[in-house]
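=== Structure Prediction Worksheet ===
Name of assembly: unnamed complex
Input type: mixed (protein and possibly other molecules)
Chain count: two
Listed entries:
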Amino acid sequence: MTLSHRRSLANRCNALKSTGPRSVVGKRASSQNSRKHGLNSAPDFESSSEYRALVDLIAEEGFSAFACADIASGLLNYRRVMDAYYATYTGPEPVNKFMRDMSVKASIPIFRELLSPSGSEPQDVREMAAFFASMQRQEQRKGGPVSRRSADAHKLIRYQRNGIARLSRAVRQD
Amino acid sequence: MLYNIHFSIDVDVAMPVEDKSKSLLPFLSSPKLLPDESEAEFQSGLKSLLSELDNPSPLAVALVSQLNESLWWIKRHTVDKELLLHEAMARLLSKAGSYTETYDNRKVSKALERYLDGRADKDEAEWIDEILTESKLTLPDLRIRAFKDAAKHIKMVDDLIHRQHQTMRHLQRSIDSIDYKSRLIKRMDLELAALESKQSVKGVLSLDAKPS
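=== Predicted Assembly ===
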């Protein structure tokens, strides 16, 4: 077993003991950890200069003031969704090669050394090995980069559906 | 690699809108292309769609630009379906026999891609043949097994393609509605002008008919 492999396993074991951020700044930062694409946050299009410019230009096409506002925000919202779609598609979750390729069986002596040097707590070692094995299965199930980007993009389908429906409704309301 | 590098394209080139200052596109983020995609092809698709517009109003042009992007996504996802199969085939080959060390299937994947395209050199072709023999598989068998393995992700890509078709339907209906609206406005303008001219002729005639 290489030293770096040993070090990586030790780091991961220690990380599992972590209790999370303690400072206000750390908590604030970690509160954004699960933020994926930002499409669930309410956008404020009305105060942007693009929105006002779009409303003015659409008004010249004979739409009512209400329709202009709806179309402008519908267009900006649709672009926001498509930009997030592109970003998700081009930046899939990277493959964790360490987790995918590691041999759990071969790592058990290291777990034993790290968790119970006296050899008195085999239960902990078994739990740790089972945990790593389940992580490995998860990683392998996600597949390669193309599978990952397809799965990630698939999660944005409902945002696209809502975005285009909103835009289409706005254009056809008059 | 295709990822993380992109450039935005200038969609405002050669728009058939009479006054470019009235275009909505500068206020909207433009569709982005992947580095290996042809900007010229994207632009020519957009131009041909725009040329089919009877009345290229700024809003119609903006919607057509979105439509072109949807078409582009369909192309991308169609390529992805084949890539998913290749990925699964490479994974199966990597797992076979003594090739477990290449489970990161990049090497196998590249060789297999060239092999399937008929671009593989002698060594690569021999290597792929050797792995196939070792895993007791023929190429069609491998493809079938890979399809089975990748079915879940291929279904996802099919959903993505279907979504783009639905988006295009929405956009097409919106464009039709704008077109109809502008035709209606034009027709009403013409009718109004005709009425006004009739009125003015009547006015002249009635003035002429008045006894002096």
